[in-house]
Design a protein that fits this description.
The protein is an alpha+beta fold. The protein is built from four helices and 13 strands. The longest helix is centred in the N-terminal third of the chain and has 16 residues. The termini are far apart.
C-alpha cells in the first residue's frame, strides 16, 4: 500500500498538468516536446541515415540469424498514406547480401540475384513504415490523445495515442525525463487468421547522430509478445548524401521468381 502511494505521488510530480489542459492538448504537447528533444527541425529535415552494427532475427524467441549490418535509409517527400522512405539493409562484413525496400517493392539480393519479396512481407514493411511519426506530423486530421502516466522498465512515461484520418492508432510511450519515445505499439488485422497482430517496437540508447539529431542505437521489434528483430548500432550518421543507385537494382542483376 505504501509503495503504491509513493508511485502515485512520483507520477504526479513528474507530470504536472494545468487544470485547463485537455487530453488532446496534453497529448500534442508531449509529442512536440519529444520532437524538440530529438532535434527539432534537424530531426524533421533529415535527408538520409546510415546505421552500422549487429542485427538479429528471431523465430519463437530463438535466434534465427545474426549478422554485421549496415542500414541505409533515405527519406522521401511526405505524402499521406504512401511509403515515404527507401531502405537498403546490407549484411555481412563484405556487405555481399542485402534487402532493398522502396515505395514500389522489396527484394532480397544475394550472389544468385534479386528475389522480390512475397506480398505479405512487403505489406508488413509498408504497414510498419506508415507508422513512422516523423513523416506524418503534418498530415491533416492527425489527432493526439494523452492516456496519462505509467511506468515502463522502471521509468516514468507519458502515454499518447496518435490516430490518423482512417482511425489507425499508434500508442507511443515517452520517457517523462528525456522526452524520447521508448515504446510504440499498434494493432493490425491478420487476414490469414482473421484476428489481430500486436506489433511493438522498443527504442533505447539514444545518441547524437550528427547535427543535433538524436537516434536510438538499440531497436527491438516484437509481434504478439515474441521478439522478432533486434538491432544494436555502434554508429549512426545522418545526412550522408546517399546516392540514388544505392536504392535501385543494378541493371545487370538477375531477377529471380517471387517467393511463394
Amino acid at each position: 500500500m505504501k509503495s503504491s502511494a509513493i508511485l502515485v505521488l512520483t507520477l504526479c510530480a513528474i507530470a504536472p498538468v494545468q487544470a485547463a489542459e485537455s487530453a488532446a492538448e496534453r497529448g500534442k504537447r508531449i509529442v512536440y516536446e519529444a520532437l524538440k528533444a530529438l532535434g527539432g527541425d534537424a530531426f524533421l529535415h533529415m535527408n538520409d541515415r546510415v546505421e552500422t552494427g549487429r542485427a538479429y532475427s528471431f523465430y519463437r524467441e530463438e535466434i534465427n540469424g545474426l549478422s554485421h549490418a549496415r542500414i541505409y535509409t533515405r527519406y522521401l517527400t511526405p505524402s499521406p498514406g504512401q511509403v515515404e522512405v527507401r531502405e537498403r539493409e546490407n549484411f555481412g562484413l563484405k556487405e555481399d547480401s542485402a534487402m532493398l525496400l522502396t515505395e514500389n517493392g522489396g527484394w532480397e539480393i544475394t550472389f544468385r540475384g534479386a528475389r522480390p519479396l512475397d506480398d505479405k512481407r512487403f505489406d508488413n514493411y509498408k504497414i510498419s513504415t506508415l507508422r513512422i511519426l516523423r513523416q506524418r506530423l503534418n498530415e491533416p486530421e492527425l489527432s493526439f490523445y494523452s492516456q496519462g502516466t505509467d511506468m515502463f522498465e522502471s521509468h516514468p512515461v507519458e502515454i499518447v495515442d496518435i490516430t490518423d484520418k482512417d482511425t489507425n492508432t499508434v500508442t507511443v510511450y515517452f520517457d517523462a525525463r528525456t522526452k524520447f519515445p521508448v515504446r510504440q505499439t499498434f494493432r493490425r488485422r491478420n487476414e490469414e487468421f482473421h484476428d489481430f497482430d500486436n506489433e511493438v517496437t522498443i527504442f533505447a540508447l539514444y545518441r547524437d547522430a550528427g547535427g543535433g539529431v538524436m537516434w536510438p542505437c538499440n531497436i527491438r521489434r516484437e509481434r504478439n509478445g515474441e521478439k522478432v528483430y533486434e538491432m544494436f548500432a555502434d554508429k549512426v550518421e545522418v545526412n550522408q548524401d546517399l546516392k540514388d543507385n544505392l536504392f535501385s537494382l543494378p541493371g545487370d542483376v538477375k531477377v529471380l521468381p517471387k517467393e511463394k
